């Protein structure tokens, strides 16, 4: 840092404090919320550098792809070839996410199969009620 610069900064901060510039700021009195709260401390700097360079952690990229795939699936009728292909892609992405997280790979398939069965059951009930 430039010699003497720290003294100038300290002086301006103290002056602002005396004038009350730091009182009633948004979030005052509450703990700070970190964007990367789920990232271990030793990886936060590297994640921040990658984020500033336009790269996302693999888990975040996968979550975005999963969300996009689910949104696309809503636009297709049940049983259509497109929805079936998207379902396979979603199963793959969920398995990959579980692998990245280090959780059981079978969990995603079971969870997604359960989701599909629930959608089918609810769709059939809605059709029969009409």
Layout of secondary structure:
Layout: H1 5-19, H2 41-52, H3 58-74, H4 81-101, H5 105-129
Helix pairs in contact: 3-4, 4-5
DSSP strand content: under 5%
SSE sequence, one letter per element: HHHHH
- Contiguous low-pLDDT stretches (5 residues minimum) are none
Mean pLDDT: 80
Please give the alpha-carbon distance between the first and last residues: 73 Å
Tally of helical segments: 5
List how many beta strands DSSP finds: 0
Which term fits the overall shape?
Answer: elongated
Mind summarizing the main beta sheet? Answer: none
Rg, alpha carbons: 25 Å
User: What share of the residues lie within helices?
Assistant: 55-70%
- The figure for the number of domains is 2
Q: Which class of secondary structure composition applies to the elements? A: mainly alpha
How do you describe this structure in short?
The chain is an all-alpha fold and 130 residues long. The protein contains five helices and no strands.
């Amino acid at each position: 840092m430039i010699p003497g610069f720290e003294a100038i900064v300290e002086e301006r901060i103290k002056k602002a404090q005396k004038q009350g510039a730091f009182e009633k700021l948004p979030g005052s009195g509450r703990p700070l919320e970190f964007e990367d709260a789920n990232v271990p401390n030793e990886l936060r700097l590297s994640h921040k550098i990658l984020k500033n360079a336009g790269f996302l952690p693999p888990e975040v990229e996968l979550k975005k792809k999963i969300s996009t795939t689910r949104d696309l699936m809503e636009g297709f009728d049940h049983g259509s070839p497109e929805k079936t292909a998207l379902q396979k892609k979603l199963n793959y992405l969920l398995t990959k996410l579980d692998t990245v997280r280090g959780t059981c790979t079978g969990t995603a398939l079971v969870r997604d199969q359960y989701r599909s069965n629930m959608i089918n059951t609810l769709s059939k009930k809605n059709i029969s009620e009409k």
